[in-house]
Amino acid sequence: MSTPRSIKPAPPAKPFLTAKWTNLIFCSYAVSDATLAPYLPSHLELDRWEGRAYASVVAFDFSETYIRGRVVPDLPNLRSFPELNLRFYVRQDDKRGVIFVREFVPNPLVAGLARAWFNEPYAAAKLTRTITPDGAGGRLVRHTLVWQGNEQHVGVAVPEGEPQTPGPAEFATWVKEQPWGFGRTRHDQPTRFRVSHPAWQTYPVTGCEITLDFAALYGDRWNFLRDRAPDSVLFAEGSPVMVYRSEPAGPGPKKERGRG
Predict the structure, then answer these.
(1) Backbone phi, then psi, for 172, in 5-degree steps?
(2) Is the pLDDT at 42 greater than 50, yes or no?
(3) pLDDT of residue 250
(4) Is residue 110 a contact partner of residue 72, using CB atoms and an 8 Å limit?
(5) What does the angle CA 159 – CA 212 – CA 185 come to, to the nearest 5 degrees?
(6) Per-residue pLDDT tens over the stretch 9-24
(7) Any idea which fold 17-248 has?
(8) Could you tell me the pTM of the whole model?
(9) Contact 137, 120 (CB under 8 A)
(10) Which residues are within 8 A (CB) of 207 and not within 5 positions of it... i.e. 6 or more apart?
(11) Three-state SS at 10
């Protein structure tokens, strides 16, 4: 009789990418289902807050990037760079996450690699970020994007103060804590990738500047946001993050769910 062999548990998955995401601005808008319908795969459902779907413009700093445990060369806008994206909120059964409409970074190589590795809708554009003291202990955080010759801005005024930890039932937590990104392969197969980070603390915001040409950046269906103030503006401190490899995300039951 052969001696039974012990079964060793599989080692935990290693992240494909590690980095820091910091100085995160979230400008969120309640939007109609019709706006999001062209982007929503059949195996996913809209995630809702109090019965409403939301999309968010998110601007942040991407830094200290490692790929497969190896540090990315410290070249301009390669290891560290700003990013600006538009995303909306979905779920697959109990997995909550986001779909990206478009993501802007300043380096064409970064955009190309992101499209190759994750098939995500990245584009390269002139994009910079400044942080300026406001003279009263606070700061002005501002992203400047140049697209088709037009300069556009996303910025917030963050007064002096201690960071806050939103509760699990608050809108801020629903927006900023998203453990999955959903997408598709070039062969139209559904995928998802996991994102892991500590819960982000937030700071109060006393002012917001957003002058994006939504139609030029994201298509005509988004033009209604051009002159509309966000329904919510958040500023999060950020943290180190881990992003894992894409995995297949087969179709699941599609039912409407959400808070409220």
Answers:
(1) -60, -40
(2) yes
(3) 75
(4) no
(5) 110
(6) 455 689 999 999 999 9
(7) Acetoacetate decarboxylase-like (2.40.400)
(8) 0.91
(9) no
(10) 156, 157
(11) coil
Q: What is the mean pLDDT of residues 141-154?
A: 98
Q: DSSP assignment, residue 39?
A: G
Give the pLDDT confidence score for residue 118 in this predicted structure.
Answer: 85
Task: Please state, in angstroms and as integers, the Cα–Cα distance from residue 195 to each residue in 15, 232, 240, following that order.
Answer: 9, 23, 11
Q: Read off the pLDDT of residues 126-138 as tens digits, 9 standing for 90 and up.
A: 999 999 999 999 9
Burial pattern 248-259, b for ≥16 Cβ within 10 A else e, equals ebeeeeeeeebe
Q: Which residues contact residue 210 at a Cβ distance below 8 angstroms, ignoring those fewer than 6 apart? A: 27, 57, 153, 154, 155, 230
Q: How far is residue 17's CA from residue 244's CA, in Å, rounded to a whole number? A: 7
Phi, psi (degrees; rounded to nearest 5) at 214:
-60, -40
Q: Tell me the pLDDT tens digit for each residue of 107-128.
A: 999 999 999 988 999 999 999 9
| Paired sense of beta strands 190-196 and 180-184, if any | antiparallel
Take residue 187 and report the two structure tokens written for it.
Answer: 């062969």
